[in-house]
Amino acid sequence: MLVNPISFYGINKADKTKPAKNTNPIEKQDKLPKNVSSSRSQNQYAAYVAGVNKAEIAAKRNFEGSAAKKLFWVLTGRNSIYEDNYTKEHYYKNGNTGWRKWVDAPAYELLDRTPEQAIQSLCTIVKPDNSYPTIPDNIKTPNYGDNWGRKANYIELNPRTVGNHNYDRVHDGLLNTIKLLPAIPPSGNKFANCVVLSQLFPSIWGESYTGDGTSLYTMNLNAGISQNIASENLERDGVKVSNEEQVKAFNDLAHMRGLKTGFRMLLSEGQMWVGGEGFNWDNPKHQEAFINTCVNGINMGFDAIYFDSAKHIDGYDQEHYFGVGRLPHYDQMQKISYEIRNRTGRNDISIVGEKCDLNPRYEEMGYTAGTDRGVSDERSSVLHESRAQQNNMNYAAGPEVSNDNDDNYYTFDERLNRLTNCLFGHDSMDTKLPTFMQMTDIFPLTPYTSTHNEMLESRTKSSDGSAESHIHNVFDTSETARWFQHRVNQKFLDAIYL
After folding, report:
1. For residues 382 and 433, is the Cβ–Cβ distance under 8 A?
2. Contact at 8 Å (CB) between 493 and 100?
3. I want to staple 127 with a disulfide (CB 3.0 to 4.6 A). Which of 30, 74, 133, 245 is the partner?
4. What is the C-alpha separation between 70 and 53, in angstroms, rounded?
């Protein structure tokens, strides 16, 4: 994590070039082409079919036990799930991946679809052969053992970036993130893929608005779910889906696909508020509020927590700390990890720390994985780290394809090389290291923004103020980007059955 108090615009190289000195790439947004998705006609046809079928089905409020079922009913007014032809036509490798199927489609096309279609897509992917798609009454997190996080792939998605940007407002980030789930590569035989949300709780300034001062490196505790990701007016016939239920529905649908889920948390006291005042690690009430916030996240169905700036807890390696304010002490972090597991009753939670290394202190503080260990550009470096850590199945520090500080300076070839080394830098899958990557490593962002820009501020990329224009301009729509996504999918397919 890197916090910069002034406006920040990164240097981008997705187009293999650097912008001119002192040039703001965001100002070029009006020059971006606004593509029209080929899925629109299919969306219209699907809506027509759904309308015909709805006339024959009596809507029932049968959604007990599953937030996903309740969400679907409120969205559609029905319980029946229709098989999604778009999904079957877009399976990667024509669906020849056993039960681990997924969709090969660009983000901007997936985000053109409706939430109803996205949920039906997920149900179509996971349904048994010769069966109708459905949402189960009780959806549990997939079981990869208590230590699954030790060798998982963590894929961070930014719901605010993919949310609906209507002029100066941002909302619906969570529903739109659900639309991406069909195209997230599945977990493998011996590893789990974990989707990590960049934001779950409100930031201090600029909630649900675009503009400066809207950094996700701030957090307002005890203030509910972020307005950036929540959807208003999710209600039908007096039945409302609360913000917390929307989160639970997201986790249900990800778990249904065999994915684990997590969320990002801050640790720097100068970047957090609680009860309208600045956070203080010496204040017992503030400590309790922090623990409760983490516990509430896990109780909404998440399986992992990614702690920003975790390497520097208790002043460790302080000269490389760029956060604002103090971090918890060693014993405070031990208590936080213990209480999260104890109060939730879950020993399978993965606690991930930014840039945590091989110092025993991290395992002693309850961490499962650290990031940015090993040189991802070199297979030999990742392999060396895998061999050096193969005897510890409780904690490991692993490589990353990119992180939240990524300024979009890796070329597609460089990203593919880093991903390959992260996935295959081991002698056997049993000794695989945990890996970390960003949304742009699967769904490439436009060269005119970057992961770091999207974390630091909320700026629409729309050329006409519409949400549709933002989606088509925030992602790379080039043929090279589609080639890259095909290659990423192939890498994951090669890893699944190891």
Report:
1. yes
2. no
3. 133
4. 19
Cβ–Cβ under 8 Å, residues 122 and 82: no
DSSP secondary structure letter of residue 261: E
Segments in 389-434 forming alpha helices (H):
412-424
Structure confidence by residue, pLDDT tens digits, 181-213: 999 999 998 999 999 999 999 999 999 999 888
Which is it for strands 369-370 and 396-397: parallel, antiparallel or unpaired?
Answer: parallel
Q: Checking DSSP bridges between strand 219-221 and strand 272-274, what pairing results, if any?
A: parallel
Instruction: Measure CA 54 to chain center.
Output: 33
Residue type for position 343: R
Residue type, 183: A
**Which tens digits make up the pLDDT trace of 145-169?**
999 999 999 999 999 999 999 999 9
pLDDT confidence tier of residue 16, bands split at 50, 70 and 90: very low
Q: How many CB atoms lie within 10 A of CB 31?
A: 9
Q: How many CA atoms lie within 13 A of 248 on its CB side?
A: 19
Q: Are 105 and 118 in contact (CB under 8 A)?
A: no
Maximum alpha-carbon separation in the chain = 67
DSSP string, 151-194: GPEEEEE-HHHHSEEETTEEE-HHHHHHHHGGGSPPP-SS--EE
What is each CA distance from 469 to 32, 143, 451, 462, in whole angstroms? 10, 39, 19, 5
> Using CA atoms, how far apart are residues 299 and 439, in angstroms rounded to an integer?
25
* Mean pLDDT taken over the chain: 89
d(CA 413, CA 404): 19
Close Cβ partners of 447 (under 8 Å, ≥ 6 residues apart): 12, 13, 14, 15, 25, 408, 476
Q: The tokens of 383 are what?
A: 């392999």
Residue spans of beta strands (DSSP E) within 28-183: 153-157, 164-166, 169-171
What percentage of the chain carries pLDDT values higher than 90? 81
State the Cα–Cα distance between residues 106 and 103, nearest whole angstrom: 9
Residue 392 is encoded by which pair of tokens? 């510890």
Contact by Cβ (8 Å): 424, 495: yes
